[in-house]
Amino acid sequence: MSALVTLPVLLPMLGAALTVLFSRSAFVQRLIGIVVLAVVSAVAAVLLVAADQGAPVVAELGGWPAPVGIVLVADRLAALLLLISTLVTLAVLLYAIDQRIADYGRETASTTFHPIFLLLSTGVSLAYLTGDLFTLFVAFEIMLAASYVLITRRTSATRIRSGMTYVIISLTSSLLFLTTIALVYAATGSVNLADLAERVGELPTGLQTVLALMTVVVFGIKAAMVPLHFWLPDSYPNAPAPVTALFAGLLTKVGIYALLRTQTLIFPLDGPSTLLLVIASLTMLIGALGALAQDDLNRLLSFLLVSHIGFMLFGLAVFDAAGIAGTALYVVHHITVQATLFLVSGLITRRTGTVSIDAMGGLAKTSPALAVLFAVPALTLAGIPPTSGFVAKLALLQAGAGAGLETSLVAGVVILASLLTLYAMVRVWVRVFWGAEKPPLTDPDPTDELIVGTARTAKPMYVATGALVAVSLTIAMVAGPLSAVTGRAGQDLFDRAPYQVAVLGEERTP
User: Fold this and answer.
1) Which residues form the signal peptide (predicted)?
2) Which of 53, 56, 55, 52 is nearest to 5 (CA)?
3) Degrees to nearest 5, angle at CA 325 with 197 and 93
4) So what's the pLDDT on residue 447?
5) How confident is the model at residue 177 (pLDDT cuts 50, 70, 90)?
6) Which residues are paired to 59 by β-bridges?
7) What is the reported pLDDT for 8?
8) To 10 degrees, the CA torsion angle through 330, 335, 340, 341?
């Protein structure tokens, strides 16, 4: 079982190398990507069952035990997020393949997309599974390198500008992260997460606070929490739909996961965090209000992405088992629904030739299937019963209402931000899908990665998007068992002991 933990990292890396070797065969490249992600999904499912029924599954790389060696750890939270992330990555890959076939033909291969896409999957898997801070830094750097290539493929001046913003902010965050790791190692002599759970507690309180705040800033930048969010609405909307969907679905959630892991394991609190409650409230409101001011559909969705990062921060800020479990459940829901909305935005742009909401109209008449594909994730994001968004928000509200006055007040902000999200989605629906049909605009940049304004879309792209909608609906249907799993995951993170015992062993765990 320990060997299985390494496969989600090794298989995409090996697949990336194979797609380079077969760069002249489009069919082989596509087959490798699909098979690799399908196998990783199956492995993640096995790891989730094993971790939920027993203890976390640990792999000691090179035979060196923790805390000296590098370990990969699949506990309930890591395995669950790995499973849902890989399923979303597979659906996005199918969408991207269908889009490329429709635009360039079935025999046109790509020398960069498939290997870089799988390399990004490697980084995401490593971030979820790693058991030490430095390997987490390596995972973020893998994701940064891969995402920069994806965001600037078939580039234009606008995309280069947005890509530079993304890279500069990411490099700044990486430099700060590396500095934080150096300070942690200088103070404790370790970077292993389970080992740091005890060693950091022995440091002076002031030093603990400084290190905790540094990790919040580092991962807050990557998660795009307010006021460190400004790079996201300028970067994501300019990438092709599959790339934006993957970034929105996964990369910010890896930042949230890193916050969950480090704040609960290394810097635990005795009660709600006032700082995080304030940040969560500002993130929810500023993101939602920013979305209402947008005419660009992708920028609107990007601001809503920022807003809903605040929901996840709220569960962490409550800082009890219920709040952490609510955040885990919300991350699972949001990975799926946010990726789906950006894929639907790509389908809309393909038909209309524009991202301007005011320049669209009447799509419900010309493409009822597209209307359905938008309506379901839009209602889910707003948290309308009985969607997965409603279940996840209900878990957060229950946790907040039961943790004291200040968390109850922020729970009210959750409800307000949800209403603003609903208003933004209704606004998009009325302007894009109702009213008189408007003719598609011509492609403003025929040389870029995406062909738009065709007034048609390849049916397989609808199928890939529909598959993600089905995943979101499945999450709602299995809300009971899934909530039980996230509840146990939240309890594990809050208690810390199961993770420490799995990594260090009982004899080395206080």
Assistant:
1) none
2) 56
3) 100
4) 53
5) very high
6) 72
7) 94
8) 70
Q: How far apart are CA 8 and CA 290, in angstroms?
A: 37
- Other Cβ atoms less than 10 A from the Cβ of 295: the count is 12
SS3 content of the chain, % helix, strand, coil (to 5): 75, 5, 20
Of 250, 231, 252, 234, the C-alpha closest to 242 is 250
The helix (run of H) or strand (run of E) holding residue 43 is helix 26-53
Rounded to 10 deg, the angle between the 321-352 and 368-382 helix axes is 160
Q: Which two tokens stand for residue 129?
A: 């599974």
pLDDT number for residue 442: 66
Strands (E) in 61-192, as ranges, are: 71-74
User: Minimal CA–CA distance to 307: which of 328, 319, 291, 329?
Assistant: 291
Range of the domain at 12: 2-508
Tokens of 488: 């146990």
E strand or H helix at 322, and its extent?
Answer: helix 321-352
Q: Is the pLDDT of residue 181 over 70?
A: yes
Residue 454's pLDDT band (cuts 50, 70, 90): low
Q: Note whether 79 and 229 are within 8 A (CB).
A: no
Amino acid 367 reads: S
Rounded distance between C-alpha atoms, residue 455 and residue 474, angstroms:
31
Closest CA to 360 of 352, 351, 368: 352
What is the spatial distance between Cα 350 and Cα 346, in angstroms, rounded to a whole number? 6
DSSP 3-state of 296: strand
Q: Flag whether pLDDT at 163 surpasses 90.
A: no
> H-helix or E-strand containing 57?
strand 57-60
The torsion angles phi and psi of 300, rounded to 5 degrees, stand at -60, -45
Q: Are 330 and 338 in contact (CB under 8 A)?
A: no
Angle (CA) 352-356-361 rounded to 5° is 55
How many Cβ atoms are within 10 Å of 283's Cβ, its own excluded? 30
Q: How many residues does the chain have?
A: 510
Task: Quick: pLDDT tens for 208-263.
Answer: 999 999 999 999 999 989 888 888 887 777 778 888 898 888 889 999 999 999 99
Mean pLDDT, residues 189-207 taken together: 89
Residue 502 has pLDDT above 90, yes or no: no
What is the value of pTM for the model shown?
0.91
In terms of Cα–Cα distance, which of 263, 254, 365, 364 is closest to 320?
263
- Tell me how many domains the chain contains: 1
396: closest CA among 265, 464, 486, 458? 486
Mean pLDDT for the chain overall: 87
Q: Do you find a cis peptide bond into 56, omega within 30 degrees of 0?
A: no
Cα gap 374→466, rounded to integer Å: 10
Cα dist from 491 to 78, 129, 319, 322, whole Å? 14, 19, 11, 8
What does the block give as tokens for 4? Answer: 């299985």
- What pLDDT, on the 0 to 100 scale, is given for residue 63? 78
Give the integer Cα–Cα distance in Å for 491 and 350. Answer: 45
